[in-house]
User: Fold these one by one.
Assistant:
Number 1:
Amino acid sequence: MNSFDNIDREYAYDGELGAVWSPEATRFAVWSPEAESAELRLYHDDSEPEPFRTEEMHSENGVWKAEVSGDLSGVYYTYAFTRNGNTAETIDIYARSAGVNGRRGMVLDLRTTDPEGWENDTARPGFFLRREREIHAAREIRGVLREGGQRIRRDYRS
């Protein structure tokens, strides 16, 4: 058994990761079992050189967590992990939104991204199935199909 199997067995986690926003508070959780410490860094924008706030995170079985009160929608964030005396700042790999070039994650109330009328949108059952049938029919008309992984041509002129 390799070390990844051991880590997975010892630190398995099935909770929600990333920044989970609410108007009252945002919960941050990131899986990093090899880190010795972790710090949450909050920024007003994507290019601000220094965070306006930092929070030490606490580890629960390899998952580093922090909670910050208040509405953080629109705030950028990163994590700083320390291991073997070296600290590295990184984006949250579980971020639901990111700034320019993915340098920092962004806390976001995803409802603010809905286009006008989104709440009235309804699913269109069968839309994709119909489109798939249309594509298949077009290929048949051209006489190009695949059977058993082999490309075949059929002549429909007779």
Number 2:
Amino acid sequence: MPRLTPVNLTVFHAWRGLITCIYTITSLKKDAEGGDALAQCVLGVMYRDGDRVEKDFKKAVYWFKKSAEQGNAKAQHYLGIMYDNGKGVETDVSKALYWYKKSAEQGDAKAQFNLAFMYINREGIEKDFSKAVYWLKKSAEQGDALAQNVLGIMYKRGNNVLKKDFKKTVYWLRKSAEQGVREAQFSLSEMYYAGKGVEKDFSKAVYWLQKSAEQGYGIAQNVLGIMYKGESGVAKDLSKAVYWLKKKC
């Protein structure tokens, strides 16, 4: 049985249902026990998710750690999450930070976002907005939608590290909104409605507001319902007003 390669791992994540045709659980375990870091990471994911094996967070941690110690960035990120959430191991924010950082330094966008969040608002970790912004930018620039949303909001509010900049707010919110983040869609709608960082555009404001509402964002549903009551320039439509206001409830 061939050992897992980076290409094999991509195939595994894309077609988990098909991978068993190539790799049996037995052969995967054999590769993992033989020291293959990719196989160890995959096995950890399977135990974490209960995918063709009985869910077992302790075994997931065991294999993530084996892989992470060999430098696998995904395993390092997953191990950080396990320590962060106390799954299969005692909650330990310092170890979570350690493994997030290891993964982030290798360019994992999700780990970069989680690391940034630790520096922003994680009990037990000293707040450091400079480091948070640094890692948020790294993550956002790689296309992480959640990082793009948070970075956009930070530019909107401004702080002693990041100067308020509405144009950058719109830039990052749009990036996030286009990937379907409903909070970003709502915030982008607000920017278009107020004409902050972008030319005021009521039709685009409504467009993004509806996108957010359609994804179940309560605030957006409430605002859209009120707008359809004819109170904010949208053509009055009481049936749509009732629809969205009921959705919010």
Number 3:
Amino acid sequence: MFVDVELGTVCEVFSSKRIFASEYTAEGVPFYRGKEVIEKALNSCVSTPLFISEERFEEIKNKFGTPQLNDVLLTSVGTIGIPWLVDEERFYFKDGNVSCLRANQEKLLPEYLYYWLNSGSAKKQIDAFQIGSTQKALTLETIKKFNIPSEEFALRLLYEEKVACVPGSAFGTGGEGYIRISYCYSEQELKEALERIEKFIFKIQSK
């Protein structure tokens, strides 16, 4: 049986350093609030371009770091739970309104994290963990408590060991934490598949 894991154990969850409106510039490095992150997630043009200076961006980058390719930005205030899989390098984002999720790629595929955040399973947890009555919000600590289901195990097994299986959750909630394997193969093929699964389990348990 493979249990769910909390997102905070396989993913760094953090926000940005505060940028004040007085620091906006006419040109420079793009600065995204929740509204712009939603537009990026929808592959739309940014309707209200905002910028910070190259100097301010470099200062933040050198002291604290900035978003990287394959990070996931998640809207966390107002219209919450919209993920964007980052596909550009030089930009910054608004603290509080947006959270940044950086997968430990030895344990979690960024693409899987992004697609899972778009799933019904994730949306239920977002609804359950959100706070606020007039304006909904997600805190960094609650995002860390999201549970990643067994689809991650099955997907990584396919990518890393070339063994296909079906996550138990595909057969209902009672199957969560298990995988299903077809036996319609030769004994030699099954033996090799089991050896690869054993190797994979040993690898993830040793990290």
